Amino acid sequence: MTALFSPYALGPLSLTNRIAIAPMCQYSADDGLACDWHMIHLGHLALSGAALLFTEAAAVTAQGRITAGDLGIWSDQTQAALAPVIAAIRKHSPIRIAIQLAHAGRKASSQKPWEGGASIEASEPGGWQTVAPSALPHAPGDAVPTALDAAGMHEVKQAFVEAALRCAALGVDALELHAAHGYLLHQFLSPLANVRSDEYGGSLENRMRFPLEVFNAVRAAVPHPMTFGVRISATDWVEGGWDIEQSVAFAHAIKQAGADFIHVSSGGISPLQKIPVEPGYQVAFAARIKRETGLPTIAVGLITDAHQADAIIEQGEADMVALARAILFDPRWPWHAAAALGAQVTAPPQYWRSQPHEFKQLFGATRLGQR
């Protein structure tokens, strides 16, 4: 058995292998409602052979969407629209399902990426007023957010809690709090976006305070056993910003608060970021956090090769790997990885006859004949 295809317990959640599908925004919802696209997109990824499927970021409020096409989980209607997608996956795949809870903060009210991705002012068609820790735009010329006051922060925290309860009602297996990629909780963490002078700004302890309050509120609300973790940006890639040392401190704090895992990405807070992109360029951050905190860790970012992924697990750099663009390009990546590593992977019986003759035990089943 290879390391990549060994079973693993992510908190109370038992997984058949170490492969997760990372949350990837589709910008294709209708006023927050999941639609046919989500059924097709998530449905075919659910047949990939990965052990854990994260849906795209689900906005906890309409104001917290990146774009008007973002998936939502803030109302009875958004919950109901997602229900048949979850039910279909449950019926046809053993994959475990996780939902990422998100609020875009100052990066909300934007165009879809294929429309340019620009910030939309509240006064413009399709735009709305954004909120953030401080009244600082993401980039020069972007819409200026409103700095959240105590009442606004309470409303956001409660929205996360209510969204988490909706996810629990849908019967998902895990939740992930989105504190990465320059969105609201990351904005509180980073001194590049948070210049508050109250107890939520300034020192590292203060900047971690609101994300930890949200984490604690959700952790207290969701039923056990439900795996619950956090996605972070380990570094802003900007001098004077959030960095790996602060990420280690935050990881210690969420572990103490009851986190089951940490999902380690990077960047997104500033257009000034300078990212040295190369294969596995974020793995070292995951490895350090795992080594220094012992918190179960998911590595992500240009992990594209089966042997590369297997080595990350074998060498103890992370407990799981997450695939994003690689699995969009090759939705059967886990099948091909299992073939390359001499392992087995779960596949629906309708597909068993697809295995090549040289990989007769790839699916753990006898090759079916054709009639």
Task: Describe the 3D structure.
The model is unreliable at 366-371 (pLDDT under 50). Strands 3-4-5-8-9-10-11-12 form an 8-stranded parallel barrel, surrounded by 5 helices. The protein has helices at residues 36-45, 76-92, 150-170, 184-189, 204-221, 244-257, 283-293, 306-314, 325-329, 333-341; strands at 8-10, 13-15, 19-21, 52-59, 96-102, 131-132, 146-147, 174-179, 227-233, 261-265, 297-300, 320-323. α1 packs parallel to α2, α3 runs parallel beside α5 (204-221) and α5 (204-221) packs parallel to α6 (244-257). The protein is globular. With 371 residues, it is an alpha/beta fold. Helix content is 32%, strand content 15%. The protein is built from 10 helices and 12 strands.
Q: Assign an overall shape.
A: globular
> Taking all residues together, what is the mean pLDDT?
95
Q: Return the structural class.
A: alpha/beta
Compressed to H and E, one letter per element, the order equals EEEHEHEEEHEHHEHEHEHEHH
Strand content: 5-15%
Strand order of the largest sheet: 3-4-5-8-9-10-11-12
